[in-house]
Amino acid sequence: MERKECVFLDRSNHSQPNTTSPSTARPVLFLLLGIGIGYLITKVLVWPIMDLKSHTNRTGASTSLDIDLTDEVRVLCYVYTKPINHKTQAQAVLETWGRRCNKLIFFSSRSDLNLTGSVELPVSPYFRESWLKTKMALKYLHDHHLNDADWFLEADDETYVVMENLRYMVYPYSPQLAIYFGSPGTVMSRAALRRLVELSLPNPSKCEQKNAGPTAEKLRECLENVNVLAGNTYDSEGRRRMYLIEPQARSNLFLHYDSNIWFWKFLAYRTQDGIFAWSNYAVSFHYVQHRYIHCFEYMIYRLRTFGRKQIVESLPPKYNPAAEKDQGAPRIGSDQDVPADYEY
Amino acid sequence: MTAKMKLRSQLHLLTGFMAGFVLAFVLLLYVYDVSRVTPCWSSTSTMTTATTARIEDGPPPRILCMVLTCPENVQSLARSVYETWGQRCSRLIFASSEDYEPLGVVGVVEPTGGGYEDLWNKTREGFRHVWEHYAGDYDWFLKADDDTYVVMENLQHLLRGFDPNTPVFFGYKMSRYNVSYMSGGASYILSREALHRFATQAYESEVICPQPKKMGIEDFYMGICMQNVGVHFVDSTHALDGDTKPKFMPLDLENYMSDANYTIPEWLRLMSLSRVETGLACCSNYSVAFHYASRERMFLYEFLIYHLKVFDPNQISERGHRSRLTLSDLTRRFPLEDNSNIKDLLQMSEKPDNF
């Protein structure tokens, strides 16, 4: 009888600790587990959406750091000049907009220690531009600077370029897309330069071999014969952004608009338009004398009108290559000479 | 017993899950709000500043622009002024020798005159005409040539610090025969009180103000008249605190932009009160007027200043609030000129040529 009682008591004592211990430990573990799961689910599902919105807002706020495209859109500027212009026109380019290029090269008939970035080409010292000089310059860029920039801007020493607006114009396009804008005053992507120099220049059936004659028409033909796209230099309101002729220069007899003069026939866009048909995001001005290059610099970057409203700017969406591929597919099929390693 | 234990475990799990969710969400909101609130504060601060400036500064100064022209220039230069900066004047008047209603050209001198030799007469009669018709309606009176380009916003910013009921004469201050005057080509501005004194005291007095004559030196003569009626000369070079560069340019901007010295004529160096700088340091960032602007230059200025946008502009904040100078402040900062040599034009010794 005593044994039975002892056995019963022992069982009671033993079972109670067992029951208490699991109930104490398990709720805490479950609680922690729940916290972890809830946190992970929220982070995975909700945070990405918020991050995107936050980034968009930050971009919309238009802080200077966010929309500085200098390093994102690298532009090499190559400027045609001649020895007699080194101290005036070329120097003005060097002191003003040339500083905003990622790299600046002057092509002349002789190099000049006082003109930083000057490269000597074996061409005539009397002509700032010629087709021979253009071909030599393009080969030089391809051989020495192909990987130094995403875009290659052609200019002469009477040009003024708003580099910020140029980067803004080409930003949507990938440098792997063979595309060019404007001619003369061409800006082409790295893929376009590569295709031009490797496929077009050596091929007589695609590119003019003779060294004489106007440059702009020949360059445009050479580019288009290897399926380099011609980009649109008009803005959303149909106003021109490139090759804006300085108004004072129009009073020059040579530059007076006349559809019969050969000069105007070779322009990519042949319509005459007034100064207010220019885009507000103008890119390049031409026939600017050297002192007026400094005037442009002052009026664009120094002079301010008090109380002028600040504009909230945002970047356009990236150009979608897939859509272009669909449109470009027939061309790819039609041209067997384009190697497969070209993205198009 | 077992059922109860299972239920408790599930409750704990659910509680933990909700706590985790709340924790993550609170962290998320904190991060999001931090990045979102800063621009809002900045915007609020900007708006507050703008509102404060607007309240304290009152309405912008009303500026009447009187532009001297001639019949041959009405369809070219005068029309360019009308189509560009003239649109931003409170009122635009052209003073010429013949009327031309479409542009608001008023004939203030005889039809036989009107050329450069009649410049002084045109200025005198123009100001007289303006005083007779508009003196009570405007605060400031700008006189410019038809080949001048004026940035009106910067002019308003400049004039906001001065009381139009005090005698003030504004412009690019120069000196000739030891007599101060404001460059005419760079344009100059009279306050309402200054115009009143000119029209009522100087206009008809040959003792203190040169009378009409051919080939009169317009800006030099106006300087004499202003001095003799007790008007304060405010050199725009020093009118803005912290900005000591010229804001009125007697030459084309192109002449200032060369580092070579030959583009600045000797007469400007001789008659300017301070050294004439060249290059980008020549001029204030809030410049007001440029002279020798052709029709093409005016349109180019209009495009570069008011139309061209540079992607990624420098967002420089502007100090909107400027206190207005009282008459005593004006006297202290811009004291009256010494007019002892020209007090009585009839009794002058050492008369300059063509006086």
Beta strand % of chain B: 5-15%
Query: Could you give a short account of the major beta sheet of chain A?
Result: 7 strands, mixed
Going by CATH, the architecture of chain B would be Alpha-Beta Complex
Strand content of chain A: 5-15%
User: What low-confidence regions of chain B span 5 or more consecutive residues with pLDDT below 50?
Assistant: 32-56
Mean pLDDT of chain A: 73
Number of strands of chain A: 10
Hey, which two chains have the biggest interface?
Answer: A-B, 70 and 67 residues
Largest sheet of chain B: 7 strands, mixed
Residues in helices of chain B, as a percent range:
40-55%
Numbering strands along the chain, what is their spatial order in the largest sheet of chain A?
3-2-1-4-7-6-8
- Could you say which structural class the secondary elements and strand pairing of chain A correspond to? alpha/beta
Average pLDDT of chain B, to the nearest integer? 80
| Tally of helical segments of chain A | 11
Shape of chain B: elongated
CATH topology of the domain at 69-304 in chain A: Spore Coat Polysaccharide Biosynthesis Protein SpsA, Chain A
CATH class of the domain at 69-304 in chain A: Alpha Beta
State the end-to-end distance of chain A.
98 Å
EC number (chain A): 2.4.1.122
Membrane topology (chain A): Single-pass type II membrane protein
GO molecular function, one term (chain A): nucleotide binding
Subcellular location (chain A): Membrane
Topology of this protein?
The complex is a heterodimer of chains A (344) and B (355).
Chain A: H1 2-45, H2 47-60, E1 75-80, H3 86-95, E2 103-108, E3 118-120, H4 131-145, E4 151-156, E5 160-161, H5 163-170, E6 179-181, E7 187-189, H6 190-200, H7 215-224, E8 229-230, E9 244-245, H8 247-250, H9 262-265, E10 284-286, H10 290-301, H11 321-334
Parallel strand pairs in A: 1-2, 1-4, 2-3, 6-8, 9-10
Antiparallel strand pairs in A: 4-7, 5-10, 6-7
Chain B: H1 2-57, E1 63-68, H2 74-83, E2 91-96, E3 105-107, H3 119-134, E4 140-145, E5 149-150, H4 152-159, E6 168-171, E7 173-176, E8 179-182, E9 188-191, H5 192-202, H6 218-228, E10 232-235, E11 248-249, H7 253-256, H8 266-271, E12 289-290, H9 295-307, H10 327-333
Helix pairs in contact in B: 3-6
Protein name (chain B): N-acetylgalactosaminide beta-1,3-galactosyltransferase
Keywords (chain B): Glycosyltransferase, Membrane, Nucleotide-binding, Signal-anchor, Transferase, Transmembrane, Transmembrane helix
Subcellular location (chain B): Membrane
